[in-house]
Amino acid sequence: MPVVTIIWITEGTWQAAVDAARTLAPPGAEFTLLHVSGGEAAGAAHAAFAGLLGRGGRGRRDPGDRLEELSEAAAEELLRAAGERLGRPATVLRRRGRVEREVVRAAEDADLLICARDGDRERLGPHSLGPAARFVVDHAPCPVLVVWPREAPGLESLPPPPPPERH
Amino acid sequence: MLNTVVAGVVSAVALLSVLAFAVARPRRLPEAVAAVPAAALVVAIGAVPPGRAWTQVRELLPVVLFLAAVLVLAQLCDDEGLFTAAGDLMAGTCRGRPERLLGGVFAVAALVTAVLSLDATVVLLTPVVFATAARAGTRPRPHVYACTHLANSASLLLPVSNLTNLLAFSATGLTFARFAGLMALPWLAAIAVEYAVFRWFFRADLAAWATPAEPAGRPRLPVFTLVVLALTLCGFALVSLAGHNPAWAALAGVLVLSGRALARRRTSVRELTGAANPLFCLFVLALGVVVKGVTDNGLGAVARHVLPGGSSLPALLAVTAVAAVLANLINNLPAVLVLVPLLASGGPGPVLAALIGVNLGPNLTYVGSLATLLWRRVLHERDAEPALGDFTRLGLVAVPATLAAATVALWVMLKVFGG
Known about the structure:
The structure holds 2 protein chains of 2 kinds. Chain A has helices spanning 14-24, 40-51, 63-86, 99-106, 131-139; strands at residues 4-8, 30-37, 90-96, 112-116, 144-147. Chain A is of the alpha/beta class. Chain A has a 5-stranded parallel sheet with strand order 3-2-1-4-5, sandwiched between helices. The longest helix of chain A is centred in the middle third of the chain and has 24 residues, at 63-86. Chain A is globular, with a radius of gyration of 20 Å. Chain A starts with a strand and ends in a 20-residue tail after the last strand. Chain B is mainly alpha-helical. The longest helix of chain B has 38 residues, at 98-135. The radius of gyration of chain B is 21 Å and the shape is globular. The mean pLDDT of chain B is 88. At the A-B interface, helix 2 and helix 3 of A face helix 1, helix 5, helix 6, helix 9 and helix 12 of B. Chain B: One of its GO terms (molecular function) is arsenite transmembrane transporter activity.
């Protein structure tokens, strides 16, 4: 049975996830490139336009509509670039909705989910995993491979050990 | 003639209907379709005597014509590629670091809002910012949110930055340059606080390195357009100093740019008329008459008791808070029409504080007012608005902080330079 592997493609960090799939996924793995559009940006633009009370005359285009088109095009482009970088046959899966929930749902029948960290890498600790990645790691129905978007930090990133307890 | 209470109630119902219609826009009918009959109604029942309604329309007409000129100016700048050039400029600042792009977006959105009004930022700049973020390979959310937030919080600087400012401008008794001078520090304070909040709130998105995109090449700046825009800005200050309406300077800028664009067949009279949005102008005039009916028949007397007088810091903060709440309950357009006549006798301080409230307040609710939000929820239930929680959390942090910072800054300016 081939290992069904989902690669979660996100802006800014997708290259690391694709590279990990190429080097770390077992031979014969079956790849799916997954992108989820949250729609927040277009939603915010729709809302800002609605807040301009009375300006919705004819010929005045709601910028949210334009953002939806642009966001479709950007997602297509991202998946195309990811497929090219992967260099192997892959299924493309596009979803819309709450990003972290859609990723978990998409991983229902998967054997492996590969994603990149998206948190704050200046301060390693709980926040070095962003909210969406944190949710996915907590709820994924399959093993998750979390990779660093750039080179992994060295051992010098270990915080000083806590002081020994006195008895 | 009806008694005051009945006239007040009828006017209030008329106002709420006008606002509901403007939000719902059944069959995408223009907002004026409800506002004009409502204005006729409040005049017909005697809530606003015809003479007073006419005075209101005459006072508002130059204001809406000024706004129309600024809207056309923004469209002409877009036609000449100014916003595309701004996108290239922002992409140039990014160089793989999303937080640098955020800085660029803040600078450009603050300037566009101040000079070409918040409409330009929302309608023309937001798509450019999204495209720039996508091209740079960064997550678009912080940058697009920055645009929608700055459209409100960077609209304090000039009378032309926001229709609310234009509506209040003559009541402040200030010249164009003096208005800008007093509001410069509140403007900067609001932007600085927004920036700090954004860097913290979106730290995860901003930490994701962008793909170093191919260099965008030197942006092609529309020099002629920029020069005309700069001259128009100087014109605002000079014409106002000479005691005339600065709208004339806007008109001059529009004539120069539209003359050139028409001669080069880059636009048409039809497109320019569309950009001026004449039905919106009509809507504002009618809305002004309906609001008059509400304030003249009860609300004004009540509000006078609630609103504190003077330009002390607590008084200014109270006015800002009342204005922000009102802007969130109804919308900042009717809010400013209600508040300005009540505050005008107190000098520029309270009026400017009210502007801070009505301009920054709308960032609290997703669509600029609670009423709009509720209506949209009722009407578009199928539209799952995923960002609602995030956006509201962002507003809960940013709005009180920007309101306080900007009002304190205004108080400092009034102390140092006097009203």
